[in-house]
Amino acid sequence: MKTASLIFGIISLVLMLVGFLPCFGALNWINIPFAGIGLVISIVALVQNKEGDSNGKAIGGIVMCGFAMLFGLIRLIMGGGVV
User: How many Cα atoms are found within 13 Å in the side-chain-facing hemisphere of 66?
Assistant: First the structure.
């Protein structure tokens, strides 16, 4: 579960960066829900963590998915995608 959250975070960051290119801004309409799903998976992985296990992958997934959602939304607002 922790590895899945990290993979969701990495993919959502890559999609966010592609969405910042001109003519690819609409990709953020797909990326924001994708990052939201990754954020939920990351939070579940963090909550289900056993005592003594590492939290690094789950926290990394939370940070990357949150970052992708925030900047994807900013890009949509700047580009006129959200009215």
Answer: 8
Dihedral pair phi/psi, residue 27, rounded to 5° = -60, -25
Q: Please give the angle made by the CA atoms of 38, 44 and 50, to the nearest 5 degrees.
A: 135
Q: Which segment, 41-45, 52-56, 73-77, is predicted with the most confidence on average?
A: 41-45
Check whether 24 has a pLDDT greater than 80: yes
* Residue 9 near residue 42 (C-beta atoms within 8 A): yes
